[in-house]
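On clarity, I found the account of how folds are encoded harder to follow than it need be. Since the whole study asks how a given chain folds, the encoding of that fold should be made plain. For the editor and my fellow referees, an illustration may be useful. An entry of this sort, consisting of the sequence and the corresponding backbone structure tokens, reads as follows:

:::
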Amino acid sequence: MIGPMADDELVTRAKQGDEAAWRALYADHAGRLIAWLGLRPTGDTSMSPEDVASEAWYVAASKIGGFHGSSEEFAGWLFGIARRVAATAKRTAERRSTTPQECDDLTTVLDPTEDHALALERLAWVRSVLAPLSARERDAIGLVDVLGVDARIAAEVLGISGVALRVARHRGLRRLDRQALVLPLRLVNQPPDAAPQY
């Protein structure tokens, strides 16, 4: 029988309540988490990707004692928490049966700088490209190809096997190819040689 995996130094420090370790984990994973959540429909327009991410970080902080692994595996664990928080938000919205309205003027919410406009435009483009795909295909491509998450961790995040992730990703990419859409869809800055591993 194999025991729990040993924690790396950053996770060990985070478990001890080291604020610098939590800041490092946040810096490593927060941007990708929010970008991924922005690609996923929550079903509740009153709960933004930032709200889901915030709740996921809160749950992670309260349950870190039960986590064992490296800071890279922490990302998979955190993304899985966020997926469950988003699913709960969707179920809550369906039970509530309300239709909150989106903010019409984003300039009242965001600082109207060129960077925000470009990021919003790019996110809207990625959403529109991935929209015709099934939820599983969209999630697989969103995690692996858009955000550059390792395929093994992406499968863990989605609660599916590595084979199921590869199949969903392959089908989605084939659909996109048939539509003659331009890839890659990367949202995050990654070195050009950082290809996803299968």
